[in-house]
Fold this protein.
Amino acid sequence: MRVARGTVRAVNALAARWAGVADGGTVFSAAGVWPLLALLADGAGGAARAELADAVGLPADQAAAAARELLGGLAEMRGVDSALGLWTKRTLELRDAWAAGLPAEAHGVLTGDVGVDQATLDAWAAKRTGGLIERMPVALTEATELVLASALSLRTEWLRPFEETPMESPYWSDRVPLGLTRTSVVLDRVGVADTPHGHVTRLKVLSKSAIDVHLLLGEEGMTSGQVLGAGVEILDGRHPVVPGDRLPYGDPGPGLRVAKRRCMTPEPPTLDVTTVAYDMSARHELLRLHRLFGLTTARDATRGHFPGISPFPLAIGSAEQSVTARFGARGFHTAAVTAFDAVATGVPDLRYLTNVITARFDRPFAFLALHRHTRLVLAAGWVTEPESYPEED
């Protein structure tokens, strides 16, 4: 599976910029938005073309090829399902060069009956995400001429599951969070990076496929955007990470404690992890962040902006993303649909010592779901509302 490093950096850069404006607990997928922006950039003209190319991070004439490469790479990732959809009215003529760059099976027809067409698009979203997202995020109107959408979903199981337990947390004192605990002898799963805004603790949770989740805990006072942005920069090698087996005794990073522990027999050093389960969803109106996504000019409905897509004058009427993420004892799954319409006895004889690293994610933290080999970020989020421990237990 190959995706050019430049494309990965461009997608991750969009994720970092989006994180910078994210507010409160949320989840989003730049990998779901980026290929659509790239395809639009390829077909845009004038100021809209320049703005979209800037948001994509590539020249407009390279954007469509990079989008196709990314979509092809996603299709080859084990545990990932992705799809592209295009629907147009029968009366809308598409430029052959632009349409030829899209999968033939992606093109559908809008009948003009808003109810029928909305049901068709909703069914596509549900099918392509395994029912995780039941509706297409955009609402069709009689003025809708074209809908361009992407669906991205992944389900993966941890290499080693966590154990569920009630957690005590001063931050989440209003509930008993569903805690997840696990002990490992692989110390480099955790590490600390020194970033411009403060130290960040990173915990890598590996899956049976090549999809991993990195949990990121920043110093108290760091914002969600600063922690998420630092996580992307760590992936890009901009901030070195001191691995667990090289961390000093004491409190070397947020949520971390390194100490000696007495034991009855010789034992290897261990990493004890405690975090929380979460199940979250969000919906994003991308036009509210039109500058971030290069859509400032493209939303101007007084004239057309996509001569490379159709000779018919088109503007972006709406752009939205619905996304969900679930982190549990056995695995992780997430899904995103993005659409644009135009328009863890006794007293023993403790004679030995070993090192123990304790990592606790017991206050708001960030996560990145990514492809292990390319480091492409597939989804990102900020966890503020963990699942509660079942009352019956």
About this structure: The helical segments are 5-21, 30-43, 46-56, 60-76, 96-99, 114-128, 224-235.
